[in-house]
Design a protein that fits this description.
79% of the residues lie in helices and 0% in strands. It is mostly helical. Helix 1 packs antiparallel against helix 2 and helix 5 runs antiparallel to helix 6. The longest helix has 31 residues.
């Protein structure tokens, strides 16, 4: 696969990650506060969100390996660590997203092992909220004055 295709998929897949996380958070908070039953659908959603996040991680790792920005960042680290846009992709975005995927994975694993439905919802709500915040902070939004990327690549 070419760099352009991987970048395009990674860019569009972020929306699936964000929307699936938001929906999962809605279900988790609703289930937690209204003391609903944790259904097979909720369990499938928990698992699907983690799977989608892991697929996004794979595309991110592929990009990290072939990106000219990352290559330049790594080969000129002492200089580029002081350049905001290059440092963002080479370090900040990558580390924060890895941490977010770790948090989703851990939250999913802990929720899966809970015996009480309310605790399953609460676990997902807390862990996925932390991951969601990390993801929102680390996405290069189009409105960002420092590191701007289009909402939808074509």
């Amino acid at each position: 696969m070419s760099y352009t295709i991987i970048l395009l998929v990674h860019s569009w897949l972020r929306w699936i990650v964000v929307v699936s996380l938001l929906y999962s958070l809605y279900r988790a908070y609703t289930g937690w506060f209204r003391e609903k039953s944790f259904t097979n659908f909720d369990n499938s959603l928990r698992h699907s969100v983690a799977t989608i996040a892991h697929i996004q991680l794979l595309f991110g790792l592929l990009l990290y390996g072939i990106s000219p920005i990352i290559s330049y960042f790594l080969s000129h680290f002492s200089e580029t660590v002081h350049i905001r846009e290059i440092r963002f992709f080479g370090l900040e975005h990558s580390v924060t997203m890895l941490l977010a995927i770790f948090v989703i994975t851990l939250g999913s694993m802990i929720a899966k092992r809970q015996k009480i439905d309310r605790l399953k919802f609460r676990t997902i709500a807390i862990w996925y909220t932390i991951a969601f915040i990390l993801i929102i902070v680390a996405i290069p939004w189009e409105f960002s004055s420092m590191v701007s990327r289009p909402y939808f690549r074509i």
